[in-house]
Specification:
- The protein has 160 residues and is mainly α.
- Helix content is 75%, strand content 0%.
- It has a single domain, classed as MetI-like fold (Orthogonal Bundle), CATH 1.10.3720.10.
- The chain contains six helices and no strands.
- Helix 1 crosses helix 2.
């Protein structure tokens, strides 16, 4: 919610970026979600790559691989962790309500997202509709996670 509030102030008419006219647009939601998930994605990716470099990259160098070969091996070994980081960032962005609501405005047919639609249905007392939308959101996340797992199996990483 704090990220959404900060972006609202930046994008509002009197804010430093108000002249761009981005508030209550899909572009504002995209910017907000990117600002929200980028630190998470970078932190997790850094940790995964650092572990792979120290574990596999250094071993490859010790066994006579070139720097480029060692980096390729480390990145290949880090790929499942990087895919998991992407799925985690995607699920964080999809489930976010505050940013979408504050900078998108929940405008029907324009900036309404699944999470803002769920919040609207709950506020109107339409709990069944909110539950149906929530199930759609869960189904999307299950599909994305299953697709990531299938892709990992196709690339030959059977562990996990």
């Amino acid at each position: 919610m704090l990220v959404g509030l900060f972006l609202y102030f930046l994008l509002s008419r009197r804010g430093p970026l108000g002249g761009l006219g981005l508030l209550y647009t899909p572009t504002a939601i995209i910017i907000g979600e990117a600002v929200l998930v980028t630190p998470l994605l970078v932190a997790v990716s850094y940790r995964v790559i650092s572990a792979a470099v120290s574990r596999y990259g250094e071993l490859a160098l010790a066994l006579g691989a070139s720097d480029t070969e060692a980096m390729e091996i480390a990145l290949r070994e880090a790929a499942p962790g990087l895919a998991a980081a992407l799925v985690m960032a995607f699920s964080r962005a999809v489930g976010e309500l505050g940013v979408a609501l504050l900078v998108g405005g929940n405008i029907r047919g324009y900036t309404r997202t699944l999470t803002t639609a769920i919040a609207l249905e709950v506020s109107m007392g339409e709990f069944e509709a909110a539950m149906r939308l929530g199930l759609v959101l869960v189904a999307i996340m299950v599909f994305v996670a299953a697709a990531a797992r299938a892709a990992r199996r196709l690339t030959g990483d059977e562990a996990g």
